[in-house]
Amino acid sequence: MWVYQDGSTVIQEEFVEKFNETSDIKLDLVQIPGDNYTDRMRTAMGSPNAPDIFFNWGGGSISDFVAEDMLIDLTPILDEDPEFKDAFIPSILDSGSVDGRYYGIPMRGVQPVILFYNKTAFAEAGVEPPATWDDLLHVIDVFIDRDTVPAVVAGADPWTELMWLEYLLDRRGGAEIFERIRNGDATGWEDPAVQWMAEAVKELVDAGTFGNNFRSVNYTADGASTFFAQGGGVMHLMGSWEYANQLSQQPEFAAEDLGFATFPTVPDGTGDPRAVVGNPTNYWSVSSSVEGERLDAALEFLRMSASDEYAQALIDNGDIPTTSGAESLLDSHANPEFARFQYDMVAEAPSFTLSWDQALPAGDAPALHDNIEKLFGGQISPDAFVAAMRNL
């Protein structure tokens, strides 16, 4: 079993251990560093070294494997076990599907992208979390005047920069623009909102929003999170897993200073301000090479993700479960205010756009990341970025 290594793997470790206490077939959990997880997974699949069970993002991240018949179709298994299927929020379970068939079982919490901020730093500066674009520009100016980086971004890992693009486009033009792109309509990249998004990124970079050294900051080695927790920057646009990471690595900061807000509105924006972007959750998928007793054991383990015990473990780790009965457990969260904020954020969202690099075909991700890195680094203009995306 392969899993992406981060602050949430403690849960997978715990439940693999529980499983192995009673199962004749043992699971070997292999933690793969995040900075090369996707590459290693894609290299391994279809080889003799492929994992039996592996962590993924659903959708485009596994569509190639489905096309090559490398995964177990879990649809009949779920249909024959309604209790198992109904244990998950339907929209979350559906997000792991490919062409209407289920190939993944939710195994982590919901993961909307949230604007985290340092409550103490904001209070000392006399500012509030930005609700509008003008508010954001004001906050940026205030903290630049205080010789503080306004917003942390891990430029060494361009998928973290992608989150800014996703929200800027969603707020400006609505979720339907990327929906067109995801469905194969490349003319979506020609929408005026895409041009505005790219120009807005240039404005933010030129204003010093991310500091001068953001391209050397990483996320997968906890660089950006540590920089944020130590006061090097005061805002961090990141998936909700950032809370669990801070709770694990910098618990005092998580308890006392970590604030959270929705992304601000933008001028002339037609997108719904309640819309969210991010990853509905992560999934376990099973290799089609697994059969017989080994497949029975794999499915037995996957069913653990539907249990109240697993949901409680996620909550104890700072996550919000994807199981349908999770709302009743939220008061036991280490930070019930954050738990309810995140739950309501997802429950009330009119759309939940999957991260672009997971929604698009896997082969497009390297070029997407490359173009984003060049845009943030000033190596290409907004016009050149839009042209490059049209030709993705």
From TrEMBL:
Transmembrane segments: none annotated. Keywords: Lipoprotein. It comes from the Bacteria. SUPFAM superfamilies: Periplasmic binding protein-like II (SSF53850). Pfam families: SBP_bac_1. This is Sugar-binding lipoprotein. It comes from Streptomyces xiamenensis.
